[in-house]
Amino acid sequence: MKHFPLSSADQLTAALAPCISRPLLLWFEQHKRPLPWRQGYSPYHVWISEIMLQQTQMERGVQYFLRWMKALPSIAAVAAADEERILCLWEGLGYYSRARNLHKAAKQIMAEHGGVFPSDVKAIRALPGIGEYTAAAIASIAFEQDIPCIDANVERVLARLFDIDSIVKQEPAASSIRSLSQLLLPRGKARAYNQAMMELGALICTKKPRCTLCPLATLCQSKHLGIADQRPVLPQKTPVRLVDAVTGVLLCDKRVFIQKRLENDVWGGLWEFPGGKIEQGESPEQAIAREFMEETGFAVRVKQKITVIRHNYTSYRITLHCFALELLPANPKAQGVQAGTACPKPPVLTAASAWLWELPHKLPHYGQPAAHRKLADMLFGQQGQAALPLLSAPQPEPAQGQ
Ligand code: SF4
What we know:
- By secondary structure, the chain is α+β, with helices and mostly antiparallel strands.
- Helix content is 41%, strand content 14%.
- The protein has helices at 6-31, 43-53, 58-71, 75-80, 83-90, 97-113, 121-125, 132-142, 152-161, 173-184, 190-203, 221-225, 284-296, 370-380, and strands at 241-252, 255-261, 271-272, 275-277, 300-312, 316-327, 352-358.
- Bound molecules: iron/sulfur cluster.
């Protein structure tokens, strides 16, 4: 990287700091987006917004934030809500451990801090789901503490301003960015300054920088060198994985079988139709029969192929083959079952923590992975009221269990 012999550059950077912070703060005052958590900066609002905005586009984040606040207006309300409600409000944002950690953190705040969000950065950091960046963001934005925030936007702006020419998330660039962030932070103005840096990265110093609109253009080294589009230096991208998977819908007496994924799983706590990856040499039909047997102990066969759903996640792209299923006459683990005449005895779960035979119109009350929600909406309508004829086989009342 370009040498900031930081020891000698410290003075230069400190002298330069007001030249950066002044125009930046002025620009922020004029151009900041009117985001809902910027009205009053309540610690609860700042916390929820910071967790929601991880891996989420701003527009989507605002929609989810408003819906969340309407449903759960306080930390006490989050702590008192059951997990189904939390996961339902989070459904579609992905990375569900964030929602489960929010829930745990709210309970911790009630138990250890009397329901008041802690202001001490160590206490904030001790809450479940809060890492170094989020703790710094809450401490500075909600409590106006002089702590710099470093997210991808800030890394990009600083890498361009100071022409840092090595990978920003690795040493030595990472240390330089930390030092620069400390030196540039105007004391007593961390709330506005941190947001201004991140806002500049989000609106102006974007992947394709709009330097003509930038309040820092006259100071920017990479712009001056004509290489802003080559900064920041990023690690090589890992290719997106393609995943072929299956899932199956099994109905009994107009109730559908769903299971709750294990807590430590990628969609932990969400409810799904059983299924999994297609193994090498398997057809989708073979895969769904195998998966159902492995995950529930139910022997099933394909009644009809319903659809193929394609869904993109951050690091992989799934092609999900979806089937309507029926029980086979011989169901060794679900003894006493006769296909088409009775519902199986309780499943033998191996990939889930709970199971239900649920009425389709109640599915919207359960958090589901995005591809499974698409399938449920396709089959039963968004309100769960319009079951397709292919799935409705009249059968007796099933046993319930978790
Ligand atoms: S001048 Fe251009 S590259 Fe430099 S900080 Fe501003 S927008 Fe980014």
